[in-house]
Amino acid sequence: MTDDVARARELIDHATSVAVLTGAGISAESGIPTFRDALTGLWERFRPEELATPEAFEANPKLVWDWYAWRRAIVAKALPNAGHRAIAGLERQCHGRDVDFTLITQNVDGLHLAAGSHRVVELHGNIRRVKCFHRHHPVESWPEGDEVPTCPRCGSLLRPDVVWFGEALPPEALAAAVAAARTCDVFLCVGTSTVVEPAASLPFTALDAGARVIEVNPQPTPLTSGASVSLRGTAGAILPLLV
Ligand code: NAD
Fold it and tell me: What is the DSSP string of 99-157?
């Protein structure tokens, strides 16, 4: 492991362009459950297709709204951990050395910004924001209560501003992520199972373009065999060693 950490540091130190992709795993040590971790994952208690799709919201808006309200309350109490802070430190280091740096996240919790990262490409939206279901009007504040609130502009029901299964990703965010994957020389992939597309393809796009890929994950993933360095451990333990 020490050799692998040293090798990963060397790759980062010699890079001219760094891209980082994070998934739910980086926020696990902040107390936010991942979707797929067998013991704590939300999938154990809820079927995602009953909750995280437009069809589910249309069929049962109250169930979906309440589930997101519960998740939003967990996120509101969560603090960034050593992994988020290390990535913010890596951004500062890269800018200090005139190295390109792009942080891409699949997370909707906003913890990278809370940790001091300046620019975050949020591929799946942000659970702290709300918009209306039909016309996507952004809504700043809404009444708490038992009913699903409605849009003050058009009367449509409000929903979280996250990307649900079957929905398109925000095009500018996806374009920025793909461009970073194609042009970086080091791609750091942290806490993602690399199964949810299109984010899952980003490290493979980087590999195809000739980048070195460093993976940080306590479990093996479909990326592990292709990664230049695979660091088996938690983000909070490993990332501070790299920066
Ligand atoms: P995932 O749940 O599919 O996979 C999580 C990965 O993190 C697993 O490979 C697991 O081994 C790894 N992991 C667990 N603990 C870790 C730790 N301490 N350090 C490093 N890695 C750890 O998550 P995903 O790949 O991000 O994709 C699922 C979808 O879930 C995404 O679309 C995302 O929007 C959504 N999601 C987001 C949050 C959040 O914002 N925090 C939480 C749950 C789900």
Answer: -EEEEEE---S-HHHHHT-S--EETTEEEEEEEETTT--EES----SSSPPB-TTT-PB
